[in-house]
Amino acid sequence: MKNPRAELKLLTVLVTMVAILAGAENAASDRPNVIIFVADDLGWADVGFHGQTQIETPSLDRIAREGVELSRFYTTPICSPTRAALMTGRDPMRLGVAYGVIMPWHNNGIHPDEHFMPESFAAAGYQTAMVGKWHLGHAQMTYHPNQRGFEHFYGHLHTEVGYFPPFGNQGGRDFQVNGRSIEAEGYETFLLADEAERWIRARDKEKPFFLYMPFIAPHTPLDAPEDLKRKYADIVDDRPKARSRQTDQTRLISKLMLQPSARPMYAAVVDAMDQAIGRVLDTLDDEGIAQDTIVLFLSDNGGAAYATGGADNAPLRGGKGETFEGGIRVVAALRWPAVIKGGGKYSGILSAMDVFPTLAQAAGIETGNDRALDGRPMWTAIRDGKPVARREYLFFASETPISGTFNLTAFNDEWKLVQEVRQGLLSADVSSYLFRIDDDPNEYNNLINEHAEIANEMADAIHVWRQMYPISGTRHELVPPPGWRAPKDWATYPLALDDMQDTPAPGMPPPHAIRPLDWQHGEVGRLIYDCEPVQLLGGGVCK
């Protein structure tokens, strides 16, 4: 015998479930798509919307014109640390990837316990893909993009794989799709555009997507298609001095050695990257989704203004590897036509660490982190064009390109301290520069003598910050350990998950000795991961 009340109750439950599911699906479909373009070593002065006319950058100019320029966007001075900050929202100093990039002979990466941005977007129902250069670990599968939230990975585990086949690093092939090595013919920048277009068109149109597209361009060694080489063959290299010792020394040495300027080839590489970005933007238009897609563009650090790099950061001082503005203040713009009016400029301080919480806030999703983020959610400030004050210091560091030579900085809205530390076997020399960036954005006036007390306070803050660094974190190494050999194919190199133990290795000290030993290490670095030391009796005790 049928029970009308039971049937009605069941029907009500079913209707409610359908409504909930439909609401969830609509909520997901209402969320914006997200694309992050990252250039590799693009100069501050090398885009049209900063006034340069030597290199054509219509696609980058379009993003700025149709969106908002992020005019005080800061990254670390070098590659891997910026990418680590971008993906985690956390300080590379605590991650152990601050002083140098991850070299092919390194076996480290970002701790598998760290939560990556695409993991949060995937958990919120997004399709996730990465097309391009990784450079955040390659020695074991725990570091691989497919284990960090990317459902689809097309590209390179390393940097400097070249712009034409065979796309290798240290003689080993490095081009893959989801862990499987592939052969590819063509110009690397355009191959990335091909794949991005293909993936966007083939996506599940009922779900939003998150696409990360970090280019190799315009990183050295530079190369470009013949038509672009001809297009820029006759441009004059009239770049002003960078006003920094390391960068200007390389240019002088190159001239003395009668080497040709890298500027024409650099211009061709930038042009090609801009074309690739334009193709992706056109794909958004063709698919009818441009209005509902957040597009963020940034460079991973300041332009490589040294001799072989070809970039120009003027009037900013310095370049890649340095902590003057030319090394850390980068070209950046964000577009979301449905929400942001075009042509604006956000003048507040932003950093690579802010990207994860900011995009999560814009998309209305949870970040999903267990560990505290160092970045700030800045979406509301960007959307409303109301800069948020930054009183706490932002820190960056680099030991590139000379081992033992550290470039350091701490800054906020009012003050910026730059330190150049040159270590010898029995000595350390420190050169310090203090600037008011609002009054002196191009760092001409060193106020260190007039405001020694402020400089000392900031130097102490840098000193404390550096003590967080894991003792086995990256350092800069131009060459591998003696006798090290590269694999023939980098896709075969990462240790498979099944071949590794389930937990991180404990190291040599017995468990009871870890905290005393960490304390004894003091300012040298941390044995305990993610530790902020508090000074006690001459050592550092973790909070």
Write the layout of secondary structure elements.
Blueprint: H1 4-30, E1 33-39, H2 58-66, E2 68-70, E3 73-74, H3 79-88, H4 92-95, H5 117-123, E4 127-133, E5 152-156, E6 168-169, E7 172-173, E8 176-177, E9 180-181, H6 188-202, E10 209-214, H7 226-232, H8 245-256, H9 263-286, E11 293-299, H10 325-328, E12 329-330, E13 332-335, E14 344-346, E15 350-351, H11 355-363, H12 379-384, E16 394-398, E17 405-411, E18 416-423, E19 428-435, H13 452-466, H14 514-521, E20 533-536, E21 539-542
Parallel strand pairs: 1-10, 1-11, 2-14, 3-15, 4-5, 4-10
Antiparallel strand pairs: 2-13, 3-12, 5-8, 6-7, 8-9, 11-13, 16-17, 17-18, 18-19, 20-21
Helix pairs in contact: 6-9, 7-9
Account of the 3D structure:
- With 543 residues, the chain is α/β, with parallel strands linked by helices.
- 29% of the residues lie in helices and 17% in strands.
- α6 runs parallel beside α9.
- Mean pLDDT is 93; it is low at 8-28.
Proportion of residues in β-strands: 15-25%
Number of helices: 14
- CA radius of gyration is 24 Å
The proportion of residues forming helix, as a percent range, comes to 25-40%
Q: For the terminal residues, how far apart are their CA atoms?
A: 68 Å
Q: What is the CATH topology classification name of the domain at 31-332 and 340-384?
A: Alkaline Phosphatase, subunit A
Give a quick account of the main beta sheet: strands, pairing sense, barrel closure: 10 strands, mixed
Task: List segments where confidence is low: pLDDT < 50 over at least 5 consecutive residues.
Answer: 8-28
Superfamily (CATH H level) name of the domain at 31-332 and 340-384: Alkaline Phosphatase, subunit A
CATH architecture of the domain at 31-332 and 340-384: 3-Layer(aba) Sandwich
**What is the spatial order of strands in the main beta sheet?**
9-8-5-4-10-1-11-13-2-14
Mean pLDDT: 93
